[in-house]
């Protein structure tokens, strides 16, 4: 590559020089020389290329030989490794097979032992469970027989109840007893009357008359009557159970008619103002019956508006009675308030009297204080006189503080000594303790 570049440079220089010489012969010589040089250069380059090609061929043959040798060596190495791996794999396979066989035999042996132990325990558990289950089954059979007997007894009792409730008077007595229990539980004692006659010109009596908590000489009463339309209610339940819409509608109409008739009777018989309040209560003994009545659209509102009768069940009656009981509590508090007001008035009068007594006592205390001072003065005087008596009889006795001469002998008159020793209140007034 370097030679080619050098030849090109020389050719360029020669051509430049030829362009500067105008002699044609010289130019021809130069061109001839240049051609000779070019041929030589080409021949030298061809020879060099041949040498290079021969060298490259030798290098290629050497590399091919080297590659063949390396390929053969690697093939032999791979074959040797494959034989070693095959031998190792065979040995490992044999060892693994032996290990698996031993593990299988050990697992089979342990499985047999475990199966035997499990079978033994399972047999014992099953036997124990069977005994327990058999005992339990016997107990359950006994309990079932007992329950069957109780069911039979209950069936007989239900039949008796049905026969009892088939009688209108018996049904009414049961509802009345239930209502009496509710009244006794909520209201205070003596808050209601039973079987009370509300009209003087009628012999009709209401089951319960609750006295209302108002300030009156004769408080008005609330009439409560219990009704239990069992026939219509049972027909309705049977129609609902049979999924018979026509029978259900007919039963509801019959129940509605019965309720309207009973409400009209209560309004006519038991709403007598001012003996009673302006409304009455129709009591239904079961919540199921009350729920079916409440499901009839507008029935309760119409009965309350047209007949002034409130329909209530066992769930609502205690709430109304508690309201009445709260009225009794409020009335008692009002009475207690009046009593307290009267007591406070009497206490005020007593306090005024006590104030007068305390004023008199204060005046007496003032007089007593003056009397006590006078008594102390007289006591001092008596003490000085007594000291004079204790002196020597040969010395003259000085005169007393009041200017009077002392007695000449200790045996002087008792009246004079008692007059000098007498306290002031003996002459001036009453004794300080209030006595004369």
TrEMBL record:
The keyword Coiled coil applies. Keywords: Coiled coil, DNA recombination. InterPro entries: DNA_recombination_RmuC (IPR003798). Pfam families: RmuC. PANTHER family: DNA RECOMBINATION PROTEIN RMUC (PTHR30563). Involved in DNA recombination. This is DNA recombination protein RmuC homolog. It comes from Komagataeibacter saccharivorans. The lineage of its organism: Bacteria, Pseudomonadati, Pseudomonadota, Alphaproteobacteria, Acetobacterales.
């Amino acid at each position: 590559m370097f030679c080619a570049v050098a030849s090109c440079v020389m050719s360029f220089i020669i051509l430049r020089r030829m362009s500067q010489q105008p002699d044609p012969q010289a130019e021809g010589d130069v061109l001839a020389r240049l051609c000779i040089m070019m041929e030589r250069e080409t021949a030298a380059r061809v020879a060099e290329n041949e040498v290079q090609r021969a060298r490259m061929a030798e290098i290629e043959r050497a590399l091919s030989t080297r590659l063949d040798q390396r390929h053969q060596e690697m093939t032999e190495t791979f074959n040797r490794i494959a034989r070693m791996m095959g031998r190792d794999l065979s040995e490992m396979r044999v060892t693994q097979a032996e290990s698996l066989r031993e593990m299988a035999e050990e697992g089979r042996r342990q499985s047999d032992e475990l199966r035997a132990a499990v079978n033994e325990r399972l047999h014992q558990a099953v036997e124990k469970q069977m005994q327990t289950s058999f005992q339990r089954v016997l107990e359950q059979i006994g309990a079932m027989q007992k329950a069957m007997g109780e069911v039979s007894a209950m069936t007989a009792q239900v039949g008796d109840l049905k026969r009892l409730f088939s009688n209108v008077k018996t049904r009414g007595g049961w509802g009345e007893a239930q209502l009496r229990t509710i009244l006794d539980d909520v209201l205070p004692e003596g808050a209601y009357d039973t079987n009370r006659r509300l009209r003087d010109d009628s012999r009709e009596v209401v089951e319960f008359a609750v006295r209302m908590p108002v300030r009156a000489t004769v408080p008005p009463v609330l009439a409560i009557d219990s009704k239990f339309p069992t026939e219509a209610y049972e027909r309705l339940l049977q129609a609902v159970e049979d999924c018979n819409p026509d029978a259900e509608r007919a039963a509801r109409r019959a129940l509605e008619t019965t309720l309207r008739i009973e409400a009209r009777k209560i309004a006519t018989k038991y709403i007598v103002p001012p003996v009673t309040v302006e409304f009455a209560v129709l009591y239904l003994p079961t919540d199921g019956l009350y729920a079916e009545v409440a499901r009839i659209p507008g029935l309760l509102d119409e009965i309350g508006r047209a007949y002034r009768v409130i329909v209530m069940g066992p769930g609502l009656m205690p709430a109304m009675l508690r309201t009445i009981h709260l009225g009794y509590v409020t009335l008692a508090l009002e009475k207690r308030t009046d009593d307290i007001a009267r007591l406070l008035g009497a206490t005020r009068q007593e306090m005024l009297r006590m104030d007068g007594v305390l004023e008199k006592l204060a005046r007496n205390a003032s007089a007593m204080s003056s009397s006590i001072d006078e008594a102390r003065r007289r006591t001092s005087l008596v003490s000085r006189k007594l000291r004079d008596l204790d002196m020597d009889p040969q010395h003259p006795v000085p005169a007393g503080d009041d200017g009077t001469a002392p007695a000449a002998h200790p045996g002087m008159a008792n009246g004079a000594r008692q007059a000098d020793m007498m306290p002031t209140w003996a002459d001036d007034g009453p004794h300080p303790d209030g006595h004369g």
